[in-house]
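Re: weekly structure request thread

Next one in the queue (203 aa):
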Amino acid sequence: MMTEIYFDNNATTRMLPEVFEAMAPFYLDLYGNPSSIHRFGSQVGERLSQARAQVANLIGAADPVEIIFTSCGTEGDNAAIRGLLQMRPEKRHIITTQVEHPAILGLCQHLEKKGYRVTWLSVDREGILDLDELREALTSETALVSIMFANNETGVIFPIEQIGEIVKDKGVPFHVDAVQAAGKLAIDVKNSPVDLMTVSAHK
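Done, posted below.
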């Protein structure tokens, strides 16, 4: 009999038993609507607030109210980018990289078809970004920059602090897909030049 060994934990991994135990009550007993005014729902709302505070603590957010829950990293990326574009409808230029996760690549390709101009930053053979290329790409029409923290295929970690300083110097919003970094690398958004960040529990 052949033994199957799973080597793709970086894509998604089995839920830890302690996480399953922590979640089980919400599937079986505490299933009320957290927005309800009755006690059965409000107790779930209290637990949701606790979870929001835990995530805020994980990434060093200034206030738990800054944490927005979505169903997955892809939805989080979409909400961040689309939200920034709606805030600045006159800006029609997006900067990202050629090596982003499909959640970002697919969205930006779609936005190109809708009339947005997308600058696709390249990387060298080691997967490293040319920060001068980023500087040159920034214009008065740039709506946002979206660059991942850690690459999901190569493991390359991008210099988010340096990138953020370049972007912020031009007054452009900066989104970071940190799905592969959260829980593995230290993150402190309160003291970082990042406006929006996406993380995901299943990593």
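The longest helix spans residues 39-59. The chain has a mean pLDDT of 95.
Next request, please.
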